[in-house]
Design brief:
Blueprint lengths: L6 E3 L2 E3 L6 H8 L8 E5 L5 H12 L5 H5 L2 H4 L7 H5 L8 E4 L8 H5 L3 E6 L2 H14 L9 H10 L7 H9 L7 E5 H6 L1 H11 L6 H10 L2 H5 L36 H14 L7 E2 L2 E2 H4 L1
Parallel strand pairs: 3-4, 3-5, 5-6
Antiparallel strand pairs: 1-2, 7-8
Helix pairs in contact: 2-12, 11-12
Protein name: Sulfotransferase
EC number: 2.8.2.-
Keywords: Catecholamine metabolism, Cytoplasm, Transferase
């Protein structure tokens, strides 16, 4: 398939396969409940990982949902068109994901007590992951060369705009104890510790035995083998895993295999300039600036 032209929504480019005028309007009018939990990510930061983790943490490690419900229905995207179709089937407390910047969250989110887990990832690894995703996803624009894709990424001419705008919008959201920040890197480094952190934040009181069980089922290998999570149910015309699997490498630092020293210098210069004066702070055990 050839990708249809992206739509523009409040200045953000979005692929029309997943986003329609109706789905975006539905998201704006969505009635957020106090018990809802949102995992918010810039694309390729660990969204589907959280779609696996959240139902397990919220339901004491019950494996049924992750083995029976595809991830896009189990923990749907706020902005995508399947939400309206599955909303009545969502287990309570509901878990959702979104790539929206803070400014596009619905009014009911802002007045609710819903909690947010914001997952950050090294933008260089995001760009690499996204580059391969654009090669395998038939509904996304051809990425061109790595160099061309870097230009687009840095200019924000990719879906959901600039990474720096996304991070800044959520770092400045002032949601207080409703928001928890975590990095993809700390999840890779020590998943059980990250799960304890998430479980405490959500007030779930999980035993160590359950934490270990969840960690096992959310490992990269287990998720690669879970047909409800690896997108093998999606027709090849939309996602062709022969070109690049969705669960591709699952590591921190793959950018080192892709960036030339010139590209690294250019990327770092643009990103640091845009983050100048921003206090990104501490996420769990990691100082955020250390993973950038
Ligand atoms: N369990 C686990 N462990 C480690 N890494 C994992 C895991 N699950 C998903 N991933 C990696 O997350 C990357 C995909 O990001 P997203 O899920 O945010 O993509 S999307 O925005 O929903 O398209 C993509 O990263 P890359 O491998 O670097 O491409 C996935 O492999």
């Amino acid at each position: 398939m050839s990708a249809t032209e992206y739509i523009k929504y409040h200045g953000l480019l979005l692929p029309p396969e997943a986003h329609t005028t109706e789905s975006l309007e539905y998201a704006q009018n969505f009635c957020v409940e106090d018990t809802d939990v949102f995992a918010i990510t810039y694309p390729k930061s660990g969204t589907i990982w959280m779609q696996e983790i959240l139902p397990l943490v919220l339901n004491g490690g019950d494996l049924t949902p992750i083995h029976t419900i595809p991830n896009w229905e189990r923990v749907p995207w706020l902005e995508e068109k399947q939400l309206a179709r599955v909303v009545d089937k969502l287990a309570s407390p509901r878990a959702l994901v979104s790539h929206f910047p803070y400014s596009l969250m619905p009014p009911s989110f802002c007045t609710s007590k819903a909690k947010v887990i914001y997952v950050m990832r090294n933008p260089k690894d995001i760009m690499v992951s996204s580059y391969y995703f654009h090669q395998m996803a038939g509904f996304l624009e051809d990425p061109g060369t790595f160099e061309e894709f870097m230009d687009k990424f840095l200019e924000g001419k990719v879906m959901f705009g600039k990474w720096t705008d996304h991070v800044k919008s959520w770092r400045n959201s002032e949601l207080g104890d409703r928001i928890m920040y975590i990095t993809y890197e700390e999840m890779v480094q020590d998943l059980p510790a990250s799960l304890r952190h998430i479980s405490d934040f959500l007030g779930c009181n999980l035993t160590e035995e359950v934490i270990q069980k969840i960690a096992e089922h959310c490992s990269f290998k287990s998720m690669q083998n879970n047909n409800m999570s690896n997108f093998s149910l999606i027709p090849k015309v939309y996602m062709d895993s022969d070109k690049s699997p969705f669960l591709r490498k699952g590591i921190a630092g793959d950018w080192k295999n892709h960036f030339s020293s010139e590209q690294l210098a250019r990327f770092t210069s643009v990103i640091s300039k845009e983050l100048e004066g921003e206090e990104l702070g501490v996420c769990g055990s990691e100082k955020v600036d250390d993973v950038l």
